[in-house]
Design goal:
This protein has 1 helix and 10 strands, in the order αββββββββββ. The chain is an alpha/beta fold and 160 residues long. The termini are far apart.
Length: 160
């Protein structure tokens, strides 16, 4: 009789342990799946970081940013795409020389963009917003700016 109780206890404990482990693994997987990156690579020589409390996207590094010509309302392969609907501020760091095609297009909540002196060109559709009306964007461009080229539709609908 005592042996049956021990076997029953062992069997019940093992089942409880398996259920506990399964629950923990499921919870961990759900957290990982729901987690969004807040920083990473943005092309070869640049990185991005997103501050969820200030809704600020910061781009750091050197050289030309990667072109994202295939960005549209339904397809977006930019590394920070999950924040495009909530981001209000974009800060481009000193050292970036060119903003690529569609890099910040369809980021329709953006109201402020800071561009450093090192940026010499802004490619087409870089800040394109589509046909709908959106809040105006205030661009702050460094006093010693070297900006000499702005592509077509790079600033479409800035004044809406």
């Amino acid at each position: 009789m005592n042996m049956n109780r021990i076997i029953l206890f062992f069997s019940t404990s093992r089942t409880a342990l398996i259920l506990l482990l399964a629950t923990l693994l499921t919870a961990t997987a759900a957290q990982t799946a729901g987690a969004q990156d807040t920083s990473g690579s943005f092309g070869t020589n640049a990185t991005w970081s997103y501050d969820t409390s200030t809704k600020t996207l910061t781009i750091s590094g050197t050289g030309t940013l990667t072109d994202y010509a295939s960005v549209n309302l339904s397809t977006d392969n930019r590394p920070f795409a999950s924040y495009k609907g909530e981001c209000t501020t974009i800060v481009i760091g000193e050292g970036i020389t060119s903003i690529g095609v569609s890099d910040f297009s369809f980021m329709n909540s953006v109201t402020s963009v800071s561009i450093p002196a090192s940026v010499t060109s802004i490619s087409e559709y870089a800040f394109y917003r589509g046909a709908s009306s959106h809040p105006a964007i205030t661009f702050t461009i460094a006093n010693s700016s070297q900006l000499t080229s702005i592509g077509s539709c790079a600033r479409n609908h800035w004044d809406r």
